[in-house]
């Protein structure tokens, strides 16, 4: 029976086609994810910076740089991670940065966008880090630790989706409120969290969104999230376990039937995708299949999934060059640095493959890549290397992550 269902799903998915906009990628649809580190240390600062694009400071320069990366890659649909939750900031970034050419790169217009609240920086009212105090005052580390997702204020490290195609906003499903305990067979460390904490703790450290995008006469479900890093915890490995289950959520969601029946969205609707629906999973998953601190091969839940095409692995020439030049932990890695998407500390964990764009089996992939130029390329100024000059914005001229893209045949 399972084989019959899978066969039907593959036939349905393989017939999908996507109409392309006038200025496209050889007629194909380009989908991307980018953790662009466009977060700020206090609420309202991101909006302030994006409202005044001409100011010459490290914050505006970084915003112009990440906008240029997006313009150089020119995706049709893109998820941006670590963009503080602020609908007005999302509008300003599109109008003042993406729609304005940066250093001669082609301006990009995204008439459609989706943004929604994030669990980051939302107080739980409980002592989630077990330090004896429930910190409910925004602005410090302890408050972030006791929030549903780490953040110094509500919405820090949020996310936004931009699209050149219409988003079916009425059909969007969000899973911000889904409780970790309600996932069958979850890895929630019951010996660490109190019963009160277990009762309310949400699975998603930011949120999980199913964003349906209308591409011609078809619908593509853009499944986006940003699981917590599997670090910054203790022997209980609470963040590693949460990262694993945040990734597992999509593995269950794209599987029709009993496996996804337990899922409920923020409006109370249950279940996952229906058989044959087209999807792309995108985001900074904070998990490498070979290296780093992931719990029990977390990302393999997606890479080995029967309905997910993980055969195409976006690559770059800059990743191997960076690993060789930086050395350190990179010399002990078993994964191929061509597929790295993040430039992390050389001591630990080293550079990793953390960001993914994973399409449904049956959707034809025509191209892919990671925006990580070699140092001889003039565009390497956009990725750069760690420099204290950029310390206020994570130490890089753009981000410690790289934009990852995938082209689908229309």
What does this protein structure show overall?
The chain is of the alpha+beta class. The protein has a single domain, classed as 4-Layer Sandwich (Deoxyribonuclease I, Chain A), CATH 3.60.10. 22% of the residues lie in helices and 16% in strands. The protein has helices at residues 2-14, 45-51, 58-73, 87-98, 141-145, 195-200, 238-253, 300-303, 318-326, 380-383, and strands spanning 29-38, 77-83, 112-115, 159-163, 173-174, 209-215, 218-225, 278-284, 355-359, 365-370, 404-408. The strands form two sheets. Strands 3-4-2-1-11-10 form a six-stranded mixed sheet, covered by helices on one side. Strand 6 (209-215) and strand 7 form a beta hairpin. Helix 2 (45-51) runs parallel beside helix 4 (87-98). The longest helix has 16 residues, at 58-73. Mean pLDDT is 94; it is low at 1-17 and 19-23.
